[in-house]
C-alpha cells in the first residue's frame, strides 16, 4: 500500500504557475498537494506599468489561483509562510498552524527592501507585493487634488524603477496636464546589466517625459527624500523599487543560504542541504552561476521545477534550468511604446510595445483560460 505524500507549493506567483498547470495536466500520483499563498489573486508584474497609465484594467493582470489550484488538485491555503524548520520538515503559517511536508517548493519571491525609506510612513509604496501596490497607488491618486500637482519619487534604477517612473509620469500627466516625478538611483545601479544603448534610450525617455533623475542614494524622511548629494525632495508618495531582499524567516530555517540570505540551489533547483526542498524565482541564489532575479527566469524555471518535483517523488533524473545566454527584456515607456533590451541590442518603438502587450496578455490568458477549461499551452511570459 502506498501512503500519500504531502507536497507543498509556498507562493502562488510567476514560478509556481507552470507547476500548477503541470499538475492540472497530469495529477501527481499518491500525493496530497497544497498551495500556500498570501492571496487568492496573483498579479503579473509586467503589466503593472500599463495598468498605472490605464491601458489595462486590474482584472487583466490578476490571475485567480482558486480555479487553477482546483484543476491542479491542490488544496488552496491563503496564509503566509512565516517559518520553516528544514530538519523537522515543517512550515509555520501566519495562522499559527505548523504543517508537515514531504516535499516543499519555495517560490514566495523576495521582499522589497525599504529599510532606508521606512521613515516615510504612509507616503511609502513598495512596488511588491504588486496587489498591495495597486491598492496604495489607487488611494494616492484618489487623494490627488487637481489644484495642487502631486509630487512622486521612485527609488531604484533597475528596469522596474524606470518603468514605474515613466508610468507614474504618464498617469499624473493625464491627471494634471504635467507631472512632477523624480527617479533616484545610485549611478552604478541605473539599468545595471543592460547595454549602454538601453540606458541611453531610457535617459531620453525620462527626459522627454520630464522625469528628473538624481544619481544618488536616498533616505526617507517624514515629508520626503534626503539625497546623499544634500538635496531634499518633498514627496506626496515614494515608490520603492529597491530590489529584492531575502525573506527574513529563512534565516532561522536551517537551510543552506547565500551570504545575503537567499535559498541556495543548484541548476536542478534543489537545496544542496535539504533534498526535500526545491526553490525557484526571486527567492533563490544559484550556487553554480549568477542568475538575475527577474520574472523571465522565474517563469522559465517553472516547467523545470514541475518536472523535478515529479522526479523527486516518483524517481527519475532531475533536469537543469540553464538560462539562455541572452534574455529579452521589454520596458514600457508609459505611452504604448517600449524599449527592447536583448544582449547588446536595443530598440524603441510602438512595435516593441505591441510585442510586449501580446506576450503579457497571452501569458495571463493562458492561465485564466486553463482555469476555465481552455486547452492552451502554458504562456511564454516575459518571452
Ligand atoms: C513593477 C515591476 C515590473 C516588473 N517587470 C518585469 C519584467 O518586465 N520582466 C521581468 O523579467 N521581471 C519583471 N519584474 C520582476 C518580477 O516581477 C519578479 O522577478 C517575479 O515576480 C519573481 O517571481 P516569483 O515567482 O519568485 O515571485 P512572485 O511572482 O512575486 O510570487 C510570489 C508569490 O508568493 C506569495 N507570497 C509572498 N510571500 C509569501 C509568504 N511568506 N508565504 C506564502 N506566500 C507568499 C505572493 O503573494 C505571490 O503570490 C518586475 C517587477 C516589478 C515590481
UniProtKB/TrEMBL annotation:
<dbReference type="InterPro" id="IPR023753">
    <property type="entry name" value="FAD/NAD-binding_dom"/>
</dbReference>
<keyword id="KW-0285">Flavoprotein</keyword>
<dbReference type="InterPro" id="IPR017584">
    <property type="entry name" value="Pyridine_nucleo_diS_OxRdtase_N"/>
</dbReference>
<dbReference type="Pfam" id="PF07992">
    <property type="entry name" value="Pyr_redox_2"/>
</dbReference>
<dbReference type="InterPro" id="IPR051169">
    <property type="entry name" value="NADH-Q_oxidoreductase"/>
</dbReference>
<protein>
    <submittedName>
        <fullName>FAD-dependent oxidoreductase</fullName>
    </submittedName>
</protein>
<feature type="domain" description="FAD/NAD(P)-binding">
    <location>
        <begin position="6"/>
        <end position="299"/>
    </location>
</feature>
<keyword id="KW-0560">Oxidoreductase</keyword>
<keyword id="KW-0274">FAD</keyword>
<dbReference type="InterPro" id="IPR036188">
    <property type="entry name" value="FAD/NAD-bd_sf"/>
</dbReference>
